[in-house]
């Protein structure tokens, strides 16, 4: 390791001030180690430990456990609801991500226009991001399923739409779950995309206008290509957010009616802490971890070239 | 702001004039956000009978704060609030302490694999608590920390340190190194330099990271639900879920008042510090 404290500009080495404290070369170690070991011990270590638990028959209802190899994964493959939950999860994640990024892109382009009042609108639009998502789930459950099936049905009835039991109908419950997740998820996408939009060079748009490009052409041929890395980031983060989302599903539908909105995240929670089959839950968690690792690698790959480009 | 760009050429058709058509979307956006929130806010001030009337009323006919009183007296929500505040504040302090030291080192020293470390931290931060919830439970069980606020603080701190490091390193990078060097010539150790020079100069950065950590700790749900759901240590999100979740028995008349109480601190924090929060969040995509 090279000495890095040589940056102090001194005329000659004879006048160097002796520093009897920590050896300079390894000083950073004492600054970094506590934080990094903290992070490792409660992020990476649990993830690995979860893989280990998934290879045992640990159950919160019994004392002791033994190593059972891949048995939990075998059970997972034979699980009756596997197809249903896979379809639910894929459908949920895909719908949430597509809607979230599409709406987020539209909204952030609108909010990027410096009209009178755009700052107030921006604050308002981003507000749902600070609301605890479990609260969002509970309030929407009430709006769509409270007394007389909720205020939402009353409002719809004013427009001539008949009463709908949102939380009792499988398709409607899923649609509602997607809608509420999007409502809570759009602000974060808007924050990221607005940050990206504001870095786009104005000159390009001016040149495009002078060349006679329409608004749509400016969007299609200037905004979209330049925004691509940030769009990728919001797609990846949106996918992870939807896949791992548990607060809103649990508060809004709890997986119901029946298993109509059951997602892998809900199964993990129910298997582990209702059926106490915590090693089976860990197996579901490990499968989810693998998907998350793919997303994380993608995320870092998208981020990496930008980083080094900034440093050059 | 950066939008003062001199426009050369034809000033008559100034390009990129914002389109007034955008205003058409403002009411839609505002309604989408405000309607559910307004319904909850106003619902908290209605008396229980009014919540069940049909057709429903939007504006309370008789304003009452009885729901708020009941939420505190009958549901003992004060305890949940205190738990949430305590956990969030300890998390903020611990996170800033560890992340600050690491960020300072990462800002001032160069060593091999530094970029790898920074990127790894960012990746670790993205391992979701949903995946880690089972191991969290077993680990805290082993440590005898189930149903303690300590367990929550430890887990939140670990999962927030990477983001805080990224935010703080960005700020420390803007503090001139000449100050460190001057302090060292005066005989300050790195440790003293950090605490007496860098920290006081980086209070804006520390606030950004602190606000961000506070708001996200406040909203945590799954970890406290599984790790600390006992009544005396539970936080507001868990309290709300146990009272008003799908399987709960409590009448929902209190839901709206309890919601407002839960949400008010973070909304106020947001209104005062949204610039801070947002500049911190873009650390996810900007660096």
TrEMBL record, chain A:
Transmembrane segments: 25-45, 90-111, 126-144, 174-197, 226-243, 278-302
Pfam family, one: BPD_transp_1
Keywords assigned by UniProt, alphabetized: Cell membrane, Membrane, Transmembrane, Transmembrane helix, Transport
Protein localization: Cell membrane
Keyword Signal among record annotations: no
Region forming the signal peptide: none
InterPro entries, A to Z: ABC_transporter_permease, MetI-like, MetI-like_sf
Limits of the ABC transmembrane type-1 domain: 86-299
Protein name: Sugar ABC transporter permease
Protein's organism: Alsobacter ponti
UniProtKB/TrEMBL annotation, chain B:
Keywords noted in UniProt: Cell membrane, Membrane, Transmembrane, Transmembrane helix, Transport
Ranges of residues in domain ABC transmembrane type-1: 81-273
Gene3D superfamilies: MetI-like (1.10.3720.10)
Intracellular or extracellular location(s): Cell membrane
SUPFAM superfamilies for this protein: MetI-like (SSF161098)
Lineage top rank: taxon: Bacteria
InterPro entries: BP-dep_ABC_trans_perm (IPR050901), MetI-like (IPR000515), MetI-like_sf (IPR035906)
Membrane topology: Multi-pass membrane protein
Transmembrane segments: 21-42, 80-104, 116-139, 151-172, 193-215, 221-245, 252-273
Entry similarity comment: Belongs to the binding-protein-dependent transport system permease family.
Full protein name: Carbohydrate ABC transporter permease
Organism: Alsobacter ponti
Lineage: Bacteria, Pseudomonadati, Pseudomonadota, Alphaproteobacteria, Hyphomicrobiales
């Amino acid at each position: 390791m090279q000495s890095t404290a040589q940056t102090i500009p001194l005329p000659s080495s004879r006048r160097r001030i002796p520093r009897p404290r920590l050896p300079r070369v390894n000083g950073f170690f004492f600054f970094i180690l506590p934080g990094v070991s903290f992070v490792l011990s409660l992020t990476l270590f649990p993830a690995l430990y979860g893989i280990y638990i998934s290879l045992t028959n640990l159950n919160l209802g019994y004392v002791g456990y033994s190593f059972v190899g891949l048995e939990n994964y075998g059970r997972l493959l034979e699980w009756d609801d596997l197809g249903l939950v896979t379809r639910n999860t894929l459908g949920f994640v895909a719908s949430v991500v597509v809607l979230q990024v599409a709406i987020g892109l539209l909204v952030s382009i609108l909010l990027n226009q410096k009209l009178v009042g755009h700052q107030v609108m921006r604050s308002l639009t981003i507000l749902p991001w600070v609301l605890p998502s479990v609260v969002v789930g509970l309030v929407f459950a009430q709006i769509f399923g409270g007394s007389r099936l909720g205020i939402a049905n009353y409002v719809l009835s004013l427009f001539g739409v008949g009463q709908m039991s949102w939380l009792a109908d499988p398709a409607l419950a899923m649609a509602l779950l997607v809608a509420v997740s999007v409502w809570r998820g759009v602000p974060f996408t808007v924050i990221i995309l607005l940050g990206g939009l504001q870095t786009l060079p104005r000159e390009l748009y001016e040149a495009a206008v002078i060349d006679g490009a329409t608004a749509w052409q400016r969007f299609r041929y200037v905004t979209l290509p330049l925004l691509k890395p940030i769009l990728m980031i919001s797609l990846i983060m949106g996918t992870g957010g939807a896949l791992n989302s548990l607060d809103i599903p649990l508060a809004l539908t709890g997986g119901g009616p029946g298993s109509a909105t059951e997602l892998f995240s809900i199964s993990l929670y129910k298997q582990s802490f209702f059926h106490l089959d915590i090693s089976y839950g860990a197996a579901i968690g490990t499968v989810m971890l693998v998907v998350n690792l793919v997303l994380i690698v993608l995320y870092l790959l998208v981020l990496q070239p930008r980083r080094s480009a900034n440093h050059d | 702001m950066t939008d003062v760009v001199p426009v050369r050429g034809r000033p008559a058709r100034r390009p990129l004039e914002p389109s007034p058509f955008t205003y058409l979307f403002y009411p839609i956006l505002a309604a989408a956000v405000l309607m559910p929130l307004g319904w909850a806010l106003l619902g908290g001030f209605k008396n229980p009978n009014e919540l069940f009337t049909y057709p429903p009323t939007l504006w309370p006919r008789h304003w009452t704060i009885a729901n708020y009183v009941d939420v505190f007296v009958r549901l003992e929500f004060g305890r949940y609030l205190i738990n949430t505040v305590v956990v969030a504040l300890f998390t903020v302090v611990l996170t800033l302490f560890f992340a600050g030291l690491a960020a300072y080192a990462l800002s001032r020293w160069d060593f091999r694999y530094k970029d790898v470390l920074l990127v790894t931290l960012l990746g670790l931060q993205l391992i979701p608590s949903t995946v880690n919830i089972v191991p969290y439970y077993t680990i805290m069980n082993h440590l005898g920390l189930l149903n303690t606020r300590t367990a929550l603080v430890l887990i939140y701190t670990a999962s927030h340190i990477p983001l805080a490091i990224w935010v703080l390193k960005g700020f420390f990078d803007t503090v001139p190194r000449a100050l460190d060097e001057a302090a060292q010539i005066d005989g300050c150790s790195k440790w003293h330099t950090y605490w007496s020079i860098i920290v006081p100069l980086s209070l804006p950065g520390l606030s950004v990271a602190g606000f961000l950590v506070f708001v996200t700790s406040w909203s945590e749900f799954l970890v406290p639900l599984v790790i600390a759901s006992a009544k005396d240590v539970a936080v507001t999100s868990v309290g709300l879920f146990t009272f008003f979740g799908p399987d709960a028995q409590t009448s929902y008349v209190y839901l709206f008042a309890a919601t407002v109480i839960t949400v008010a601190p973070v909304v106020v924090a947001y209104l005062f510090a949204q610039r801070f929060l947002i500049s911190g969040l873009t650390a996810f995509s900007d660096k």
